[in-house]
Amino acid sequence: STWGPIFISFHMDRKLTVGRVPIVERPLSKGKAEVSLSVFELIFSELVQYSQSRVSNTSDLEARLNSAGQQVGSRLVDIICYRDKNSKREIKIVDMLKFISANVWKTLFDRNADSLERSTDTEDEYMISEREPLVNRFISVPRDMGQVNPASFVAGIIKGILDSANFPARVTAHFVPIDGGANKTVYLIKFMPEVIGREK
Description:
Layout: E1 17-18, E2 21-22, H1 37-52, H2 58-83, H3 93-109, E3 115-118, E4 125-130, H4 152-164, E5 169-177, E6 183-191, H5 193-199
Antiparallel strand pairs: 1-2, 3-4, 4-6, 5-6
Helix pairs in contact: 2-4
């Protein structure tokens, strides 16, 4: 079915309130932000369908999802740091990736990432692994789309955070087979030469 535009209107003389405090006046640092899983499912599936209708191949679809994720990531890092009064600016690659695989994952998915590893082949590549990304639960990829990984959106979030924190990198999502015939998703993070140079 085709979804038409959804219009939401508010009366200007009314305020959306939680308790006695208007929601727009509540500070960011208070309360635990939660989103209904069904709402997220609907919004994300619409994002994928919208992106799919504007591309002609799988690589362009993943690039479009990655780009959407980057916009989220660039804003998310400021909110997380603002809410966590004990946070500090990370200047080392491993510390920054630990922040993403723990703090960011906890904020987004209410748990840590499954693993964080460094490539044994090259010094500029790291991997964050996840057995079942939340974004992949709601998307059925048609056979003609091949190995499209909707978690490219999450890869974009990681890139947006890294770029905003001055750790420019290329981040891509890949399916990797595991025992039992299933796949896990690996986010491959390849840092730019200048980032590696700072570590030396």
